[in-house]
Each structure stands twice: as structure tokens, then as C-alpha cells.
Amino acid sequence: MSKNHRIADRIIASIAPSIFGHDYIKRALALALFGGQAKNPGDKHKVRGDINVLVCGDPGTAKSQFLKFVEKIAPRAVFTTGQGASAVGLTAYVRRNPTTREWTLEAGALVLADQGVCLIDEFDKMNDQDRTSIHEAMEQQSISVSKAGIVTSLQARCSVIAAANPIGGRYDPSMTFAQNVNLSDPILSRFDILCVVRDEVDPIQDQHLAKFVVGSHIRHHPAKRETDDFEETVNELQIPQDMLKKYLVYARQNIHPKLQIWTKIK
């Protein structure tokens, strides 16, 4: 597969194939799924290799569907929503064992997603205190705990893919990204890729979207007929989900990308 010169296009076509367009978001999700290379130059400080992605845009633009697809295809994924998530639910908390009466440490979503992906929908619905609690996990990829006599550090080496709605419900292109979302600068700086998805009025694009949706319903109908040449071309590009999942596992374990000297010029 890797020798195919169109492998990048095939991977993008295989990310959420039921969603029309948004190739740049699919590319960002693919980068987060494959990840980068963690570094520790001179044993002085760790540089994370996991890629964090934030998708912000208008309602009804399939943001949640993107996250649900990643949950299905990622080798390890934990899905949660900002509205129902708390700081302890995302990081870690202590509880008393009813039998032994001893305090035990319970892992939150970010710890459970170690070496995988943590998906947070409705990220803007979290309160500021809960969002502040994940700063350490997103950058240092660890969670420090000091509760009930338990002092330790838990690994949270995962990518964070979050979806958020803009202030007022609609994205305003006349303002900056930071002005459109109800998020602080420290949390925004921890996202490597910021994606904007807008529901713009475009008759031609809407016509293509309608054709895609109708074609999708026809293809998945029990009494479907033979697909046309266009559909066959699309299906040829797509990689079966089981194969894509295995490819992700292999790439994360065996491929270690590195920057070339010529990238300094760019």
C-alpha cells in the first residue's frame, strides 16, 4: 500500500467516506491518527509527537460525525462530551474502596486513551476550570495527582481531537479564530491544527452535496442496483476499514518520520 503514489489520497478518501467534501479536515484527522515522532533532545525536555486537532464550525456540518468515525477506526480511542465531562472525569480521581476502605486511583478519559486518541465533542461547553485541568495532559502528556495521600504521575500520551461551536452559533469570517471560539489562548496554543468548517450558501456545491447524499442512500439500499463508473472510481480509492485500521497500527509502531534538511528552507 505504501508504494502506491496515491496512498495519501486513498487515506483521505477513506476517512469518513459518508461525509461529502471537507478534505482538509480529513487530512488533519489522518495526521492525528498516524501521529508524529516524540523527541527528547539531549535528555533535556520531551517534545510530544502526538498531534492535537480542533474542529470549529457551524452547526450541522458533521463535526460530531468526524469524531465518531475516528472512534471507530482508531486502534485505541475514548469518546467524551464537554457538556458531561468534568476535570476528574478527563484526568484522574480517587475513590474509596467500599470493601477495603482504602483510597484507589481511577483513570479518566485522557489516561485511558494513552497511546491512542481522546475525542472531546462540544469542547466549548466545558467550563474554564475543567479545560485548565487538561493543559498538562495536552502538552507534557502526563497527569500529576496529589489527592488523599496518593502522589503520582499518570501517562496521557494521546492525541486530542476536539469539536467546538463558535460563539453565537455561526462562524464569523470577519473575526479571528480566537475571537470566534470561547477558548483561552493557552488551550488554543496546545492544538497543532485548527480547522474551520462553514456552511456557506453555494448552489453548485449544494447540488453536488445533494447528489452525494442521494447516491449514498441508493448504494446502501437493500435493493441497490449496479453502481456507475463514478461510484466505482470512488470505491477504488477507499481502503476497507479493517485494512485501514491495521495500516494505522503498523505505521504507528514501525514508521518514524523525520524532517529533512530542505524543510528548513520552507
UniProtKB/TrEMBL annotation:
It comes from the Eukaryota. One of its GO terms (biological process) is mitotic DNA replication initiation. InterPro entries: MCM (IPR031327), MCM_CS (IPR018525), MCM_dom (IPR001208), P-loop_NTPase (IPR027417). It is an enzyme of class 3 (hydrolase). Keywords: ATP-binding, DNA-binding, Nucleotide-binding. Residues 7-213 form the MCM C-terminal AAA(+) ATPase domain. One of its GO terms (cellular component) is MCM complex. Its EC number is 3.6.4.12. GO terms for molecular function: 3'-5' DNA helicase activity; ATP binding; single-stranded DNA binding; single-stranded DNA helicase activity. Belongs to the MCM family. This is DNA helicase. It comes from Callosobruchus maculatus (Southern cowpea weevil). The lineage of its organism: Eukaryota, Metazoa, Ecdysozoa, Arthropoda, Hexapoda.
